[in-house]
Amino acid sequence: MPLIRFLVIWGLAFFYCVTTSLAQGLMIRNFNVKDGLANATVYAAVQDKDGFIWFATPTGVSKFDGKRFRNYSKKDGLTDNDVIKLAADSKGRVWFFTLNGKLSFYDKSIIHSEENDSSLLFNNRSHYMQYAFEGAGGIIWFLNTNNRIVQYNGKKTTYDKLGASDADLFFLMRNENLFRPLQSSFHLESLHDPSNPDQKIYPVPTTSLQDPEFLNRIRSHAIVILKNSLYSYSSKDAISFFNGDEWGIHDDINHICLDNDNLWIGTQRALYFLKGYFKGQRKVTRLLDNHYITSLLKDRDGNIWITTFGDGVYHIPYKNFYFSYLDNTNGLYSHSIFSISKDKKNDVLLIGQNAGILNTLDGNNKIRQFTIDTTSGRNSLLSILPRGTDNALIGTDNGLFNFNTLTYKWAPLKAIKMLKDVDVAPNGKIRVAAKNQVIALDDYTIGDLDMLVTSIACINDSAYYVGTNNGLYFCVDNQKRLIPAGADTLRKLSIKDLKWIDGSLWIGTSDKGIYVMEGDKVIKHLSTAQGLSSDICQQLYYDGVGRLYVATNHGVSVIDVKNKAITRNITSNDGLMSDDIRGVYADDDTLYIATSNGLCYFNADHIPVDTVPPVIYLNNIRYGDSTFLALNNFTHLYKRKASFEAEFGTIVFDLPDLVEYQYNFSGDTTSGWVTTMSNIIPFPDLQPGNYKLMVRARKYKSTWSQTLNLDVSILPRWYQQWWSRGILLLAGLLLVLVVLRYIVRRIKQAEKRKTEYNRRIAELEAKALTNQMNPHFIFNSLNSVQHLILEKEEKQALNFLSDFATLMRQMLNNSRKSYISLEEEIAFLTRYLELEKIRFAHSFTYKFILEDALKDYTIYIPPMIIQPIVENAIKHGLAPKNISGYLEIRLEIVDDLLYCSVDDDGIGWDKSNSIKSSRLIKHESTALSVIKERLQIIKSFNGSVGKLEIIDKFKSGFGNKEGTLVEILIPIVKML
Fold first, then answer.
1. Where are the alpha helices (DSSP H) in 773-821?
2. Which of 363, 562, 621, 758, by CA, is between 20 and 30 Å from 858?
3. Signal transduction histidine kinase internal region domain: from which residue to which, for each copy (predicted)?
4. Percent of the chain as helix, strand, coil, to the nearest 5
């Protein structure tokens, strides 16, 4: 609920009013930025067709339902944040007037502008709209600051098509039968209409304001504000019906509001309330002093809304006009009241307060103050009772006093410390309850009691009841002692007040409600269970005509004495200033209620009760993490563990926090309703299906509203269908069987292949080591070393031996690994080729060509696959040549395999085979067959297919080129 500040404002009388007369107080609520309003400066207010109140501010617009503000700005679709005026048409659209001149309106939860509605495209030529009128067929006519008329027909926006040369504001106002104004008044500098020379202008009313026909004219025709005067305007004449100077209002009028027979005037300095203006009353009340009033609005419920420049929005609930309020802001000494009574003969209301102050209010609404108890400390006026003619008996914390209501003189009767209650017997004898004693004035005292005496009630001239914090007692004057009275249930009660009514004793307790006793028997008990406002009773007041008023800390309860039943409760929800009630007094039709926050008085039989059910609306729908538009049908695919929430609201401007909701999710009202104070109805993890959500609401003391229905369809996903679940279950069982069978077979095959693999690997590794290096290479290398030594080239021989040893160590290390990196393989081949060049006297050159893509990965290949091919190329292709040869080794990535080509320009494959010895052929065939077999084994385990192909270039279409090309695809492991 918005934070509401209650201001009790009192009016000053002007002109014909007596300067000391009292104005009616009004309780005014203020809404500001802290409550959710878009800005403290509000230019205008309007009520739409649904009942929402809209406010125009410099930072957007606010839509208010009585409890929550919903703010809209440019990000929500406004053409500009600075909205200066509003207009609501009959189709439910709310139009926004902005300084940029672009048109926009709100309709069905969407703001329409030229960005999303082509019908609003319009060249405003830097002029903005001032007034709006509605014509036939829902056509809207605007008047802009260039005094041009703009038409909107729902399809497009254009300049006026009226065909009149004088089409201006006067034209629209003259033809009021064609153009209905969407604002309550117009500001004009002059009433002179050049196109209507026959129009009469009357600066004073032509008839009495009480004339029903004249009042009807004012309500049905345009109202023109001319500085500080008001005119009723028609094509025939303009008649003044208000002149501010006559009422002490000299400032220009900003806005007005007609409220039944009342008139509201807003200026730059204050708000003026002219109660009964159209009934001829001459009263003006100045409210909201030093406030710049920008607009006034009376809503459909009769509430008054006042917008201000910099001070937010003020709201006067309609029911507050039925109440009058007094406190320290409009005449009383303080806001806290302890007792109240009235001398009907002299028409003097007596109001007892703290600090020993007695306030009197006479028939002329004149307040006077008297200091009755001048002692220090607590000296509140606790009790006021009539005493004979023209006198009142006043009991304070420190004694008894007599006050003459005719002469306004007071006199002390008896000093009594800690007085609690006073009562007067039929013969005028005064009895007092004070702390731990009972005093029969000028007769006797029963003192030193071991209990706290709180109340006293006289039965007749000689007998009375005494209430204490320890039960009920009875006393007669001739015995002068307290006797326990009543049933056992009353013996230990803490009694607050007593009232003897027509043979029955009514007992108000501190925490048990009301007991009714006849004789010594309790015949009735009334508590909160029976509808009492509170079980804490603070005072009982009997009006003498059958009604007992119980003042409690939660309002006033009215009891029918004859039927001993509670007829109604009156609380702050009904208009009281506070629920802490100190006293009650009834004067014919007027009921006075003293509270801790002031005095409230009103016609007891005409308290307004708003029984009209509230308007309920769907605010939004949330499903999962998404929010959807407020539509009456919601369909969505099921989301796992997603919560469905429907948020509702009601348009209630009085006591919005007391709104109750009831909902039913089955669509069957016989299954019962769930009652809640929350406007959010959640349904966690809503399962697929069709639902009907029914919601209704009621406000304070109203009936239930019409039911709002929401159809909800949560669609199942395919796997939630019965047939899909059956298929999935069957497929799952089959899949489990297939997988189990496959796993068992794979385990058996893997064990078998693993055994075979280990055996073959061991054999192949042995063959690889055997065939990795040609024994002739080792033998010839050692011969080369010997030759170098003989030729005295010891240093070159040592280098050769060092490189040879390194190569042999590298070869042995690689032979132990399943995979080596491509960089290691190239380094090994390079060292090998360098030794071969030395051994063959540098009779050939070589080159490695690597594809760029190889640099992006780390490539692993099986060891000792490329070296035997390179060795064959040197020994059997290049070595037999008589001239220098060339060897090229190319490496590329092809379909996740390493493509390696060894290309030489030697004697060729066929020629080499023809000149080889049988031993060499056997060695060569063995080396190549080992490579092929290794590739086949690798394929059987990881699925990669290797290939080895030997090409004689001369015979294979390479022109006249000689030599051998060996291509091999090697399975690899690739890593980033």
1. 775-790, 794-815
2. 758
3. 765-843
4. 20, 40, 40
Distance in angstroms (rounded) separating the CA atoms of residues 255 and 252: 9
Q: What is the pLDDT of residue 20?
A: 30
CB-neighbour burial class of residue 890 (10 A; exposed 0-12, middle 13-18, buried 19+)? middle
Answer whether residue 681 is part of any domain: yes
Per the DSSP assignment, residues forming a β-bridge with 687 are none
> Beta 129-134 vs 180-181: how paired, if at all?
antiparallel
Structure tokens at 600: 């409230």
Q: What is the pLDDT of residues 673-726, one digit of tens each?
A: 899 999 999 888 888 889 999 999 998 888 999 999 999 998 888 777 777 778
Side by side, the strands of the sheet bearing 129-134 are 157-159, 149-152, 140-144, 129-134, 180-181
Quote the Cα angle for 349-352-357, to 5°. Answer: 110
Range of the domain at 202: 185-322
DSSP assignment of 309-347: SSS-EEEE-GGGGGEEEESTTTT-S-S-EEEEEEETTTT
Are residues 905 and 961 located together in one domain of the fold? yes
CA 860 to CA 884: how far, in whole Å?
33
Q: Quick: pLDDT tens for 586-612.
A: 998 899 999 999 999 998 888 777 788
Report the relative pairing of strands 104-107 and 110-112 from DSSP bridges: antiparallel
Which residue, among 627, 58, 47, has the nearest Cα to 303 in the 3D structure? 47
User: Do the strands 633-637 and 708-715 form a parallel or antiparallel pair, or are they unpaired?
Assistant: parallel
Collapsing DSSP states into helix, strand and coil, what is residue 804? helix
Res 6 pLDDT > 50: no
**Looking at the structure, do residues 131 and 250 belong to the same domain, yes or no?**
no
- Report the CATH number at residue 148: 2.130.10.10
Which DSSP category does 300 fall into?
T
Query: Pick from 698, 696, 716, 714: which is nearest to 706 by CA?
Result: 696
* Whether residue 970 is found in the same domain as residue 823: yes
Domain C-terminal end among 720, 750, 776: 720
What's this model's pTM, rounded to 2 decimal places?
Answer: 0.69
Write down the residue that tokens 């395919």 correspond to.
718
Note whether 507 and 472 are within 8 A (CB): yes
Residues 914-940 have a mean pLDDT of 65
CB 11 within 8 A of CB 284: yes
Tell me which H or E stretch contains 49: none
- 332-336, 624-628, 931-935: least confidently modelled range: 931-935
Q: Are 191 and 307 in the same domain?
A: yes
In Å, what is the CA distance from 473 to each residue of 123, 430, 963? Answer: 89, 18, 137
Instruction: With respect to residue 109, please indicate whether it lies within any of the assigned structural domains.
Output: yes
Structural tokens at position 480: 């002068």
Q: Are residues 40 and 128 in the same domain?
A: yes
Beta bridge partners of 98: 83
